[in-house]
C-alpha cells in the first residue's frame, strides 16, 4: 500500500516535471528560457510580478473559500435572515492601501526598465579609430520576409540575422509595406515595424546559437500582416565577436562562381530567368531589395524561413511559392518562363547553384 | 399583460415586436439577435480551435482563417456582448428605477434596428466577396491593403450599429437622470442601474472617436482620401490611437454592466445587503474615469517612447485598485450571508477566480517592459478571454438565468443550468489557461498555423479540447431555453424568493406599463425593505391610481435603419465604378431622411390607459399571478 502510494507519488512528480519542462517550450523561441540580457530583464519582471500576483491570488482564495464554505444556506437553515451589514471603512481602507503598496513594488522596476530598455545613448558613439563602438542593424520588414542591413559594414542579408554575442546590438526597425512587428522571444521583447517611422531599440545576445538543438534562434512577426503572417519567420545566428568579424569579411568579398558544373548552369539560369532582377547574390549592398538577398542561402537553416533546408523543398518553393506562403510577392515561374513551369533539370541546376551560395565555408 | 397581445396570431405578434417601443420587448429583440450573433461568433471560434488543434492543419486556408478570426472578434464584441448587455439594461434598468419606460421609447427602437441592420450588413460580407480580414482592431496599413470589400463591410456595418449603440447610451443616461421614481436618489440606485449609467456615459464619450476613425477609413478606402496612406503623407498610428481611445473604454462598457449583474446576484443569493455599496459605486465611477487614460497600453510596442510608456503603465496599474475594492466587497457580501447556490450564484462564484486571474495578468501586461514580450502573443489572447469570457460572458449567462423569469415569466431549468455552468466553466479554463503558456513559449496571436517544430502542439490540442466543452455547455443552454418555453410554467413576482430591488415587486413578466402606480422609494433595496416590514404589496406608492400616458408603436425606426442599410451598399461598391452606386446612396438616404421628416411632421401623441382598465388588469394579474 505504502509502496503503491510512493510509486503513484513518483508518477505524479514525473508528470508534473514533464509538464513543467513542456511548459517552458523550446529554447530557440521561449521567453521562459532567456538567452539575452533584455529577455532576462523581462523574465525577472515576469517572476517579480508573478510573485506579487500569487500573493494577491492566495489572499483572495482564502477569503473566497472561507466565504463560500462557511455561509452555505444548507448549513444555516432556510429561515435565517443575515444581518444587513452596510460596510466597513476600516476594511475599505485596508484593501485600498495594500494594493497601492503592491503596485508601487512593481511600478518602480517597471519605470526603471522602461527607460533602461529605451536607452540608445551609446548607439552613435565612435571609437578612437572612427568606427562605431556598437553594431547597428537596419531591419526592414517586407511582406513576408525580413531584410537585415549592416550599414557600417556595407553588407546586407535576409531571413537570417547574424549577430555577435556579448555586446549591445542596436536595431533600426521599419516596414516597407504594412505594419509588422520584430520579435525574437528568447532574446527580448518585440518592437513594431511601422510603415511611417523607424523604431530604434537594442538587444544583447548571450548564447551562441551553435549550442542550440536547431542551431538558430527563432524570430517571428508579431503583428497581423496578411494571409501569411503566421509564416513570416526569420532565424537568428549568434556567434562570438571573432567569428562575426570573419563572417562580415566573407560577406564583403565578391562571390566567386561555383566550381560544380550543375551549379554553373544554375548560375546562368539565375540570370536568364531574371531571378537576379529581384534577388542579389552578393552580400555587399544596402536595403531596398525586391526579394531577399541570397548571398548566404547555402548557410541557411530554412527555405523561405519555414521549410526544412534541402534541395527538394527549395525546388518545390521555386515552382510554386504561393502554395507555401499565400500572398507572398514571389512570382510564379510561368510569369518569367514564357508561361511554362520550370523543367526538372532547370530546377536541379538552380537548386545546386543556390545551395552553393555560402559565406561560412 | 396586454390583452390584445394574447389573442393575436403569430404574424400580429411579430409585427407587434418589430414596431414595439416597449423597453421589455426591445430587450427581447436584443436578446434574440445578440444570441444569434453569439452563436455565429461561437461557430467561428470553434473553426479557429479546429484549425489550431494540431500543427500544420489545413482545415482553413490562410486567408479564410484571417476572415474567421476577424469576424469572431468583431461579432463577439459589437454584435453579441454589447447587444446582450444592452438587452438586459433595457429589460431591467427601467424596472429598477421605478419607471414606465426609457426616456425616449422611439429612439430605443431606432437604436436596436440600427444595431440589427449594421450587424446583418457586416455578416453579409461572407456571401458578397469575403469578410473583413484585418483583425477586429482593423489596423490601418493592413486594412488599406486588403483587397476584398471585407473592410468596407466592417467600416460601414460598424458605423450603422455604432449609431445605434450611441443612441441607446444617450437614452439610458437621460432615463436614469430623469425618470427615477420619487425617493430613488442616486445613492439608492441598484448597482446594475449604476453600472448601466456609467457604461452609458462611456458609450457617449468612447463611440465618437471610433466613428471618426471609421469615417477616415471609409473615406480612404471608398472616396480617395489619404488619412492613413503613408505614401501620401498619412499616418497609420492615428488609427491605432483613435481605435484604442474607443477600444479601451469599450472593454469597460462591457465589464461594468457585468459587474452590476454580479453585484445584484451576490446580494440576492447571499440574502444580504451589498457590502460597501458606496465603495462599489465609487469604484465603478473611478474605473470608468480611468478607462479613458490608459489606451496607449495597447500600444507599448508601437514606439511611443519611454515617457509615454511609463505614464500609461502607471495609469493602467492604478485601475487594479478600484477593481480589487470591488472583488473584496463582493467577497464580504457573501461573508456572513446565507448563500444559496442557484445557477446565477454559481456563475457569480465562478466569476471571481476567473476574473481575478484575468485581472492579475492585466496588471502584468501593464508593466511596459514585460509587455514587450507578452504583447500580441497568446498571453494576451488568454488575458482578454479571461476578462471577457470569465467576466462578461459569465455575467450574460448568469443574467439569462436570473432575469429569464422576469422577462418571460418562466424559470429556466436549474438542473440543466448547472450542467451548462460546469461544462462551460471547465471548458473555459481548459481552453484559455494554457494559452498564457503558449504566449510565453513564443506563440504570436492571429497565426493561422504553426509548425510542428515550435513546441506548441500539446498545449494547442488541450486548448481545442476545452473549446468542445464550452460548445456543449452552450448547446445545453439552448436546449434549456427550448424546454422551458415549451413547459411554460408561470412564476410569481419574486421567483428567487430573495429579490431586493423594485423589479421583483411587480409581476413576471411585468404589465406593459410596468407600474400601475409609481412607487415611492424609501431606501436602498426598496423591495427588501417593504418585505421586511411585512408590506404584502411589495411597495408603497407615490401617486394615486390614475390614467397612464403611453407612446404608440412605430414602424419608422425600421425604415430609418433600413435606409442607411441600403445607402451603405451604394457606398460600398462606389470604388468599383458601377453606375448604380450614387443613385443607391441617394435612395437610401432619402428613405432615412424621409422617414425622419415624416416623424417630425406627423403628430404622434400616444394614448392613455384608463384607470378602470388598470384596476381590471391588476385584478386579473392577481388571480393568475399568485
Commentary on this structure:
The complex is a heterodimer of chains A (361) and B (626). Helices cover 40% and strands 17% of the residues of chain A. By secondary structure, chain A is of the alpha+beta class. Chain A folds into 2 domains: 190 residues, Sandwich (Immunoglobulin-like), CATH 2.60.40.420; 95 residues, Cupredoxins -  blue copper proteins (Immunoglobulin-like), CATH 2.60.40. The mean pLDDT of chain A is 91. A 5-stranded mixed β-sheet of chain A has the order 3-2-1-5-8. Chain A has a 5-stranded mixed β-sheet with strand order 4-10-9-6-7. Chain A is elongated, with a radius of gyration of 28 Å. In chain A, strand 6 and strand 7 form a beta hairpin. By secondary structure, chain B is mostly helical. Chain B has a domain of 196 residues: Cytochrome C Oxidase, Chain A (Up-down Bundle), CATH 1.20.210.10. Chain B is built from 21 helices and 4 strands. In chain B, the strands form 2 sheets. Chain B has a two-stranded antiparallel sheet. In chain B, strands 3-4 form a two-stranded antiparallel ribbon. At the A-B interface, helix 1, helix 2, helix 4, strand 7 and strand 9 of A face helix 4, helix 6, helix 10, helix 11 and helix 12 of B.
Keywords:
heterodimer, A: 361 residues, alpha+beta, Immunoglobulin-like, 2 domains, 5-stranded mixed beta sheet, 10 helices, 12 strands, 40% helix, 17% strand, elongated, B: 626 residues, mainly alpha, Cytochrome C Oxidase, Chain A, two-stranded antiparallel sheet, 21 helices, 67% helix, disordered C terminus
Amino acid at each position: 500500500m505504502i509502496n503503491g502510494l510512493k510509486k503513484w507519488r513518483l508518477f505524479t512528480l514525473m508528470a508534473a516535471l514533464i509538464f513543467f519542462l513542456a511548459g517552458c517550450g523550446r529554447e530557440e523561441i521561449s521567453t521562459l528560457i532567456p538567452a539575452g540580457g533584455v529577455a532576462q530583464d523581462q523574465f525577472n519582471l515576469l517572476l517579480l510580478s508573478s510573485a506579487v500576483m500569487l500573493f494577491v491570488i492566495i489572499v483572495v482564495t482564502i477569503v473566497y473559500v472561507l466565504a463560500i464554505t462557511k455561509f452555505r444556506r444548507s448549513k444555516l437553515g432556510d429561515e435565517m435572515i443575515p444581518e444587513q451589514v452596510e460596510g466597513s471603512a476600516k476594511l475599505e481602507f485596508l484593501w485600498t492601501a495594500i494594493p497601492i503598496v503592491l503596485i508601487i513594488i512593481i511600478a518602480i522596476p517597471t519605470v526603471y526598465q522602461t527607460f533602461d530598455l529605451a536607452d540608445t545613448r551609446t548607439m552613435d558613439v565612435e571609437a578612437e579609430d572612427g568606427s562605431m563602438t556598437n553594431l547597428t542593424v537596419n531591419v526592414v520588414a517586407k511582406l513576408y520576409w525580413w531584410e537585415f542591413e549592416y550599414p557600417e559594414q556595407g553588407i546586407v542579408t535576409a531571413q537570417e540575422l547574424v549577430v555577435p554575442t556579448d555586446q549591445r546590438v542596436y536595431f533600426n526597425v521599419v516596414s516597407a509595406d504594412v505594419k509588422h512587428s520584430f520579435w525574437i522571444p528568447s532574446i527580448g521583447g518585440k518592437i513594431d515595424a511601422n510603415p511611417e517611422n523607424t523604431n530604434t531599440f537594442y538587444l544583447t545576445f548571450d548564447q551562441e546559437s551553435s549550442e542550440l538543438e536547431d542551431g538558430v534562434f527563432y524570430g517571428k512577426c508579431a503583428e497581423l500582416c496578411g494571409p501569411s503572417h503566421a509564416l513570416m519567420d526569420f532565424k537568428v545566428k549568434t556567434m562570438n565577436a571573432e567569428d562575426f568579424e570573419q563572417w562580415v569579411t566573407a560577406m564583403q568579398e565578391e562571390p566567386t562562381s561555383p566550381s560544380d558544373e550543375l551549379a554553373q548552369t544554375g548560375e546562368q539560369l539565375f540570370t536568364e530567368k531574371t531571378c537576379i532582377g529581384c534577388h542579389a547574390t552578393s552580400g555587399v549592398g544596402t536595403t531596398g531589395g525586391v526579394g531577399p538577398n541570397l548571398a548566404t542561402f547555402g548557410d541557411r537553416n530554412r527555405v523561405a524561413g519555414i521549410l526544412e533546408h534541402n534541395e527538394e523543398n527549395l525546388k518545390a518553393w521555386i515552382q510554386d511559392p504561393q502554395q507555401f506562403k499565400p500572398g507572398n510577392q514571389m512570382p510564379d515561374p510561368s510569369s518569367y518562363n514564357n508561361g511554362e513551369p520550370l523543367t526538372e533539370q532547370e530546377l536541379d541546376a538552380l537548386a545546386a547553384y543556390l545551395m552553393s551560395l555560402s559565406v561560412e565555408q | 399583460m396586454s390583452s390584445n397581445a394574447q389573442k393575436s396570431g403569430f404574424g400580429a405578434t411579430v409585427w407587434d415586436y418589430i414596431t414595439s417601443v416597449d423597453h421589455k420587448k426591445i430587450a427581447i429583440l436584443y436578446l434574440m439577435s445578440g444570441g444569434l450573433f453569439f452563436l455565429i461568433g461561437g461557430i467561428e471560434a470553434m473553426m479557429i480551435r479546429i484549425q489550431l488543434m494540431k500543427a500544420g492543419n489545413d482545415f482553413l486556408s490562410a486567408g479564410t482563417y484571417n476572415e474567421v478570426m476577424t469576424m469572431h472578434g468583431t461579432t463577439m464584441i459589437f454584435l453579441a456582448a454589447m447587444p446582450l448587455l444592452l438587452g438586459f439594461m433595457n429589460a431591467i434598468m427601467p424596472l429598477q428605477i421605478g419607471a414606465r419606460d426609457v426616456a425616449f421609447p422611439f429612439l430605443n427602437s431606432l437604436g436596436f434596428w440600427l444595431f440589427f441592420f449594421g450587424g446583418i450588413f457586416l455578416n453579409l460580407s461572407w456571401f458578397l466577396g469575403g469578410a473583413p480580414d484585418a483583425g477586429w482592431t482593423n489596423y490601418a496599413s493592413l486594412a488599406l491593403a486588403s483587397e476584398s470589400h471585407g473592410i468596407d463591410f466592417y467600416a460601414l456595418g460598424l458605423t450603422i450599429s455604432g449609431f445605434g449603440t450611441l443612441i441607446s447610451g444617450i437614452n439610458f443616461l437621460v432615463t436614469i437622470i430623469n425618470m427615477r421614481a420619487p425617493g430613488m436618489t442616486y445613492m439608492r440606485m441598484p448597482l446594475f442601474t449604476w453600472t448601466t449609467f456609467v457604461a452609458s456615459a462611456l458609450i457617449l464619450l468612447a463611440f465618437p472617436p471610433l466613428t471618426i476613425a471609421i469615417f477616415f477609413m471609409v473615406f480612404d478606402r471608398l472616396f480617395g482620401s489619404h488619412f492613413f496612406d503613408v505614401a501620401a503623407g498619412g499616418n497609420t498610428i492615428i488609427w491605432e490611437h483613435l481605435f484604442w481611445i474607443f477600444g479601451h473604454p469599450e472593454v469597460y462598457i462591457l465589464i461594468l454592466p457585468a459587474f452590476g449583474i454580479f453585484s445584484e446576484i451576490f446580494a440576492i443569493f447571499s440574502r444580504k445587503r451589498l457590502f460597501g455599496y458606496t465603495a462599489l459605486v465609487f469604484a465603478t465611477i473611478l474605473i470608468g474615469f480611468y478607462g479613458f487614460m490608459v489606451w496607449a497600453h495597447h500600444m507599448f510596442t508601437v514606439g511611443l517612447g519611454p515617457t509615454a510608456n511609463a505614464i500609461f503603465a502607471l495609469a493602467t496599474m492604478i485601475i487594479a485598485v478600484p477593481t480589487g475594492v470591488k472583488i473584496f466587497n463582493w467577497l464580504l457580501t457573501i461573508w456572513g450571508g446565507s448563500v444559496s447556490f442557484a445557477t446565477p450564484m454559481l456563475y457569480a462564484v465562478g466569476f471571481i477566480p476567473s476574473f481575478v486571474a484575468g485581472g492579475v495578468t492585466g496588471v502584468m501586461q501593464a508593466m511596459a517592459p514585460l509587455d514587450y514580450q507578452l504583447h500580441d502573443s497568446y498571453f494576451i489572447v488568454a488575458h482578454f478571454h479571461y476578462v471577457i469570457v470569465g467576466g462578461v460572458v459569465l455575467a450574460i449567462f448568469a443574467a439569462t438565468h436570473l432575469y429569464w423569469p422576469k422577462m418571460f415569466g418562466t424559470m429556466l431549468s436549474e438542473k440543466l443550468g448547472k450542467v451548462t455552468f460546469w461544462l462551460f466553466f471547465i471548458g473555459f479554463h481548459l481552453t484559455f489557461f494554457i494559452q498564457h503558456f503558449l504566449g510565453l513559449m513564443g506563440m504570436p496571436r492571429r497565426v493561422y498555423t504553426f509548425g510542428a517544430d515550435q513546441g506548441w502542439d500539446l498545449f494547442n490540442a488541450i486548448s481545442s479540447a476545452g473549446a468542445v466543452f464550452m460548445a456543449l455547455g452552450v448547446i445545453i443552454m439552448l436546449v434549456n431555453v427550448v424546454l422551458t418555453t415549451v413547459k411554460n410554467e408561470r412564476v410569481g413576482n419574486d421567483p428567487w424568493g430573495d429579490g431586493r430591488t423594485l423589479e421583483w415587486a411587480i409581476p413576471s413578466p411585468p404589465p406593459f406599463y410596468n407600474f400601475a402606480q409609481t412607487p415611492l422609494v424609501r431606501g436602498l433595496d426598496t423591495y427588501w425593505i417593504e418585505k421586511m416590514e411585512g408590506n404584502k404589496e411589495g411597495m408603497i406608492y407615490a401617486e394615486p391610481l390614475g390614467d397612464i400616458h403611453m407612446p404608440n408603436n412605430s414602424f419608422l425606426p425600421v425604415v430609418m435603419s433600413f435606409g442607411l442599410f441600403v445607402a451603405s451598399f451604394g457606398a460600398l461598391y462606389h470604388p468599383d465604378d458601377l453606375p448604380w452606386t450614387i443613385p443607391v446612396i441617394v435612395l437610401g438616404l432619402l428613405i432615412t431622411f424621409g422617414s425622419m421628416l415624416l416623424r417630425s411632421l406627423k403628430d404622434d401623441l400616444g394614448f392613455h390607459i384608463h384607470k378602470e382598465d388598470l384596476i381590471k388588469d391588476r385584478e386579473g394579474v392577481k388571480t393568475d399571478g399568485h
